[in-house]
Amino acid sequence: MIEIRTPRLILRRWHDDDLAPMADINADPLVMRWIGDGSVLDLDQTAEAIERCEEEWDDEGFGLFAVELLASGELAGFAGLSVPEYLPEALPDVEISWRLGRQFWGQGYASEAAQAVLEFALQDRGLDRVIAIDRIGNTASENVMHKLGMTAERETTHPVTGHALCVYGIDLTEYQA
Among residues 48, 18, 35, which one has the least CA distance to residue 84? Predict the structure, then answer.
């Protein structure tokens, strides 16, 4: 079982008791405003998403980690790797992403989790390149990408929602642990 510890977080596979707190995060319109078409997800949709995350772990050897606060054991959200099938032009690259509950914003948790995931991708999984796909205007996520050393490579449009996106990338030769 893969588990990553940072100074304040545990990144781990999903547990059954993660469903309700993750559903609460996915039900927050402010959390979801930059994701897909901005729609919130209910409990069943969250359960399906977690199931897909676990399937990706089995299929790809990576996926989205549940992010837990080390001090309290509280689920803060997720961070991890996925295949960005929603944006075929980005394939075969692997995407790093994160989503945290609003009460966890502005404390450096997203950067801390994303840094750990990037190290996992490049060092443990042997990926030579990782991308992040951001809806233009989401400055909080852009700040995390810059902290990771990622650079904006190109702008594109989401094929379903029509939203303007920016693809950021980093490869192993640029990575500084």
Answer: 35
The answer on pLDDT for 173 being more than 90 is no
As given in the structure block, the two tokens for residue 157 are: 């449009």
Distance CA 127, CA 96 (A): 12
The reply to whether the predicted model has a pTM over 0.90 is yes
Give the model's confidence band at 22: pLDDT under 50 very low, under 70 low, under 90 confident, else very high: very high
Q: What is the C-alpha to C-alpha distance for residues 33 and 15, in angstroms, rounded to an integer?
A: 26
Q: In whole angstroms, what is the distance from residue 113 CA to residue 96 CA?
A: 11
Number of CB atoms found within 10 A of residue 142's CB: 18
d(CA 177, CA 167): 22
**How far apart are the C-alpha atoms of 90 and 9, rounded to whole Å?**
30
* Two structure tokens written together for 149: 């050393």
Nearest to 158 by CA among 88, 103, 107, 87: 87
Give the closest residue to 68 by CA, choosing from 128, 117, 14. Answer: 14
CA-CA distance, 34 to 36, in Å (whole number)?
7
